[in-house]
Automatic annotation (TrEMBL):
Tagged with keyword Lipid metabolism: yes
Family: Belongs to the AB hydrolase superfamily. AB hydrolase 4 family.
Principal place of residence: membrane
Annotated catalytic residues: 208, 346, 377
Topology in membrane: Single-pass type II membrane protein
Keywords in alphabetical order: Cell membrane, Glycoprotein, Hydrolase, Lipid degradation, Lipid metabolism, Membrane, Serine esterase, Signal-anchor, Transmembrane, Transmembrane helix
Family matches, as PANTHER family: ABHYDROLASE DOMAIN-CONTAINING PROTEIN, MONOACYLGLYCEROL LIPASE ABHD2
EC numbers, comma separated: 3.1.1.23, 3.1.1.6, 3.1.1.79
Gene Ontology terms: cellular component: sperm flagellum; sperm plasma membrane
Record protein name field: Monoacylglycerol lipase ABHD2
Alphabetical list of Pfam families matching this protein: Abhydrolase_1
Length: 426
């Protein structure tokens, strides 16, 4: 009895120790998961020293200023990505635009939304941003609406492509949907803008999959780059073929993201199954009821791409589809200023893929690669502690870069006019 009485008071101390250890372990997990010890820093920049790059560094403070995400959760690429995916943006505005319809040669109906500027551009020029959203996205997505509203207020006209089949309210008029790198609809939108506004100059902007499409479009022909001031690509992966293997790995939960995106793609495709899989003589001959059955059981984008997406354009294999539809082989053919933006903690774009924009930036004077430590996939939220601001670092950077390029072009044009005037006097 005496020994039992002596041992009893020690039990609470043991339990307190266990609780303390549990709390410490939980805090450690939180700190690790939220990357709270990760520093904030200016983005890593890769570029060649040139008159243009020096001008950009002076004119774009965001390139050299540290990006500070929300304190509690902003250093987690997963939370930034999830918040973008679930919420899009905070208190996103509702810019007013007109929907345009273009009939494609194969009977498909391309649509885009056109938004007029809300103020005069800082250069006094007519400038239009032609925007290609991310996978299965369109002009009604909150991150697009927020960016468009901000661009309008800075004097830009905006044209936003709605990916073929992405808008629930628009029926497909041919047995074809958007693919990873088909540039037909984007090209049709750009040609409409060039024809309708003969004085306008273009700023090309692509987000995620849209970044691949716009870079491929510009690199496909020199004519595509006429009247284009610059191009900005945000959070793209550059090579679908090289990304394919990384997207099947559990590292950084990529396999889970793959499953979620595949599930979303399945819903979109199945919403158009009557046009895509119905009794239609114009549908791709290789698209069959068996492919529809495989679609129901698909758990990855690769399975969907292999059974459905590649067949819209008659690719014989998934490898050929990814090889041909990626912008990788077209980037070196782009001669206008090109800004390639990624985040080091983007869970969808494996770090090995970032060697592509880095190598390009080291070789070409017109290219700059911008890599902030944080931001996730299309997140880039800013804010003091917990609640993010409506505008993101990405929104501000794209407009700031576009403004700088417009100023650069106007300065070059002014210098050229002055030189001609002087030579004429001589």
């Amino acid at each position: 009895k005496m020994s039992a009485m002596l041992e009893t008071p020690e039990l609470p101390a043991v339990f307190d120790g266990v609780k303390l250890a549990a709390v410490a372990a939980a805090l450690y997990v939180v700190v690790r998961c939220l990357n709270l010890k990760s520093p904030t820093a200016p983005p890593e920049l890769v570029f060649q020293d040139s008159a243009l790059s020096r001008f950009l560094l002076k004119s774009c403070p965001l390139l050299t200023k540290e990006y500070i995400p929300p304190l509690i959760w902003g250093k987690s690429g997963h939370i930034q990505t999830a918040l973008y995916g679930k919420m899009g943006r905070v208190r996103s505005p509702h810019p007013y635009g007109l929907r345009k319809y273009l009939t494609m040669p194969d009977g498909a109906t391309a649509t885009f939304d056109l938004f007029e500027p809300q103020s005069e551009h800082c250069t006094g020029e007519d400038v239009t941003m032609v925007i290609c959203p991310g996978i299965a996205n369109h002009s009604e997505k909150q991150y697009i609406r927020t960016f468009v509203d901000y661009a309008q207020k800075n004097g830009y006209r905006c044209a936003v492509l709605n990916h073929l089949g992405a808008l629930p309210s628009i029926e497909l008029t041919s047995p074809r949907m958007f693919t990873y790198g088909c540039t037909w609809e984007f090209g049709a939108m750009v040609n409409y803008i060039k024809k309708t506004y003969p004085q306008t100059q273009l700023v090309v902007v692509g987000f995620s999959l849209g970044g691949n499409i716009v870079c491929k479009y510009l690199g496909e022909s020199q004519a595509s780059q006429e009247r284009v001031l610059c191009c900005v690509s945000v959070c793209q992966g550059y090579s679908a073929l090289r990304a394919q293997e990384t997207f099947m790995q559990w590292d950084q939960c990529r396999r889970f993201y793959n499953f979620l995106m595949a599930d979303n793609m399945k819903k979109i495709i199945l919403s158009h199954r009557q046009v895509l899989f119905g009794d239609n003589m114009k549908k791709p001959q290789s698209l069959s009821d068996a492919d529809l059955s495989k679609l129901y059981t698909a758990t990855s984008l690769m399975q969907i791409d292999d059974n459905v997406m590649r067949k819209f354009h008659g690719y014989s294999s998934l490898k050929e589809y990814y090889e041909e539809e990626s912008c990788l082989h077209y980037l070196h053919r782009i001669y206008v200023p090109l800004l390639l933006v990624n985040a080091a903690d983007d869970p969808l774009v494996h770090e090995s893929l970032l060697s592509i924009p880095r190598t390009l930036s080291e070789k070409r004077e017109n290219v700059m690669h911008v890599l902030p430590l944080h931001g996730g996939h299309l997140g880039f939220f800013e804010g003091s502690v917990l609640f993010p601001e409506p505008l993101t670092w990405m929104d501000k950077l794209v407009v700031q870069y576009a403004n700088a390029i417009c100023q650069w072009e106007k300065t070059k044009s002014h210098c050229s006019d002055t030189e001609q005037a002087v030579s004429g006097q001589e």
